[in-house]
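re: the backbone from monday

yeah here it is again, tokenized this time
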């Protein structure tokens, strides 16, 4: 199951309001693998689509399909505000470790 921090939930609520998307939720989709693990995208979505898992929160819902649900297992959606990385959301999987060869053209990540 995916977890969302209170700060991330607040950020999404404010983003929905700012973009005049009252009543909408957020679709999370699996965008492929990288050396740091699964990569995800997010978009506004009005309601669940066929096959979507729905996680109801206080002001909105998160939607994702079965493939994404598998990759999101144990992930934490967090809000970041960092001068080096910017402001926004990140999806952190505590079970995935990056590898030292990232970007070096070498393989061997585990």
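seq for it, each position gets an aa:
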């Amino acid at each position: 199951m995916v977890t969302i921090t209170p700060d991330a939930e607040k950020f999404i609520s404010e983003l929905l309001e700012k973009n005049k998307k009252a009543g909408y939720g957020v679709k999370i989709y699996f965008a492929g693998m990288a050396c740091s693990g699964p990569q995800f995208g997010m978009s506004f979505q009005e309601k669940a689509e066929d096959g979507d898992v729905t996680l109801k929160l206080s002001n909105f819902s998160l939607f994702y399909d079965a493939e994404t649900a598998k990759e999101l297992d144990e992930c934490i959606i967090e809000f970041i505000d960092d001068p080096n990385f910017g402001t926004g959301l990140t999806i952190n999987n505590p079970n995935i470790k990056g590898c030292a060869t990232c970007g070096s053209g070498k393989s061997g990540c585990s």
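The radius of gyration is 15 Å. Strands lie at 3-4, 25-34, 37-45, 53-56, 61-64, 76-82, 86-92.
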